[in-house]
Amino acid sequence: MTIANITGIGKNVGSAAKGICRSKGYQKLTEFALENISPAEQRLLVGVTGVIMQPWIDLHNKKVDKETRIYSACKNCAKAFVGATTGFFIRKGCIKLVNHLIDKGRLLPSDTSGIVHYTQKVKNYGSALGTGLAIVVMMATNFLLDAPLTQLLSSKIYSKATGGKDKQ
Amino acid sequence: MNPSTVDKIEKFILNHVDSASTMLVLMGIIGTITSSVAQQIGIKANKNIPEDKKAFLINQERNDCMLSAGLTWLTGTSSKQIVKFFTNRGYLLNDNVRKVSDAIASMNGMTHKELAKTGFFNPAKTGNSLNISQYKGLMRRMERCREGISIIATIGAAILTTNLLVPILRNKLSKPALKSDETPKLSVKMASNLNSNKFVSAYPTYYSSSMKI
Questions:
Q1: Residue B124 falls within a domain, yes or no?
Q2: Using alpha carbons only, what angle is made at residue A124 by residues A21 and B165, rounded to the nearest 5 degrees?
Q3: Burial of B209 (0-12, 13-18, 19+ CB in 10 A)
Q4: CA separation for the pair B171, A70 (Å, rounded)
Q5: Are B114 and B106 spatial neighbours (Cβ–Cβ below 8 Å)?
Q6: Mean pLDDT confidence for B183-192
Q7: pLDDT digit string (tens) for B96-132?
Q8: For B57, which residue in chain A has the nearest alpha carbon?
Q9: pLDDT tens track for B22-63
Q10: Higher-scoring residue by pLDDT: B105, A57
Q11: What is the mean pLDDT of residues B152-167?
């Protein structure tokens, strides 16, 4: 391959990237992410992809015997699912609660002078305060909800995966 | 709560919420650590899992936690820096920013690249504040665009690390559980050693005392 070919490829990739960046879809995507994706949606997206990807990787772990592979895949599948569900709802609920209080005039930062782009700042402030509250709530729910539900669900998945013959 | 404490918390948050993506990263790390501790307790308490499987699952959980926390922080913060690096040089900008930046560039007889080199008429870089209003307007759009790209990049990085890189690495690092057919083999070997006269003559005291126990 000559240098002319390489630079040719580079130019093509460059112009394709430029085309994507100037497209309406790209603009909509960046605006959508900014307006609609909070830590709650992020947790959901990571969790949903985890439900599919993590068990697949565990089932291909050649370091352990087949039985351990199934145990591990069931546990991680259940963990991803339970974690995504509880994580999403707790984060979403906490952010909504804080934003509601901000709208009512409570919890508003007392000193807002000198803050550029105030609207976005307050939105981020609400999101930050809401996620902070969610951290505190989740410290308890990780133990009271996530862990027991994960064990329960992984047992169910395991018995389904082994045709109900073996009990976990 | 004491009003001064509330003010302090507000001040701290306002100083640290410039970027929603930083919050996403921090949330991910704290959530990972508490969740991992809870899961390890859950596995230990589960009476239905055999002990050898428990050891592997707990080991796997620990490695998962360490790797997730480290890699989430690394990719989360670096993805933000990478986005900043490219947008400051005029790349990855959406049409909303490009419309304004192209207009400014053509008004000043410059190309987009040349404008990017001046930091989009950054007064701190060019030394003149004639275009300060243009610069501020453009930066407002740029900030929104950068924030949007950062969120997408952070999510992409989180999916790749949490669901691909971490499971592969944690499985490689975790001590494998004993295979179900390994225990009997070991017992047979030990039993044959115990029965051999060689072993008894070499370790007579140990042998007799262990037999007593």
A1: no
A2: 60
A3: exposed
A4: 13
A5: no
A6: 48
A7: 888 888 888 888 788 888 888 877 777 766 666 666 7
A8: A72
A9: 666 676 688 778 889 999 999 998 887 888 888 889 999 999
A10: A57
A11: 89
B103 touching chain A per CB within 8 A: no
3-state secondary structure of B6: helix
Residue B91 sits in the same domain as residue B186: no
pLDDT at residue A150 in the model: 93
B24 vs A23, A39, A121: nearest CB: A39
**In A, residues 1-60, which contact B (CB 8 Å cutoff)?**
17, 21-24, 26-27, 29-34, 37-39, 42-43, 45-46, 49-50, 53-54, 57-58
Whole-prediction pTM? 0.72
What is the number of other CB atoms lying within 10 angstroms of the CB of residue B117? 13
User: Degrees (nearest 5) of the Cα angle A151, A83, B151?
Assistant: 160
Residue A166 neighbours by CB distance under 10 Å: 11
Nearest to A149 by CA among A47, A94, A75: A75
Range of the domain at B193: 181-213
Straight-line distance from the first to the last Cα atom of chain A, in angstroms, rounded to the nearest whole number: 57
Question: What 3-state class would DSSP assign to A37?
Answer: coil
Of residues A22 and B92, more confidently modeled:
B92
Q: How many domains does chain B have?
A: 2
Size of interface A-B (CB pairs under 8 A): 183
In this structure, are B189 and B169 located in the same domain? Answer: no
Q: How far apart are CA B142 and CA A110, in angstroms?
A: 28
Mean pLDDT of A74-83: 93
Question: Is the CB of residue A66 less than 8 Å away from at least one CB of chain B?
Answer: no
Tell me, what's the pLDDT at A93? 94
**Angle in degrees, 0-180, between the axes of helices A39-59 and B20-45, rounded to the nearest 10:** 50
Q: B193 and B174, same structural domain? A: no
Residues of B in Cβ contact (< 8 Å) with A58? 167, 171
pLDDT one-digit tens code per residue, A87-146 = 999 989 998 998 888 888 777 666 555 544 556 666 677 777 787 788 889 888 999 999
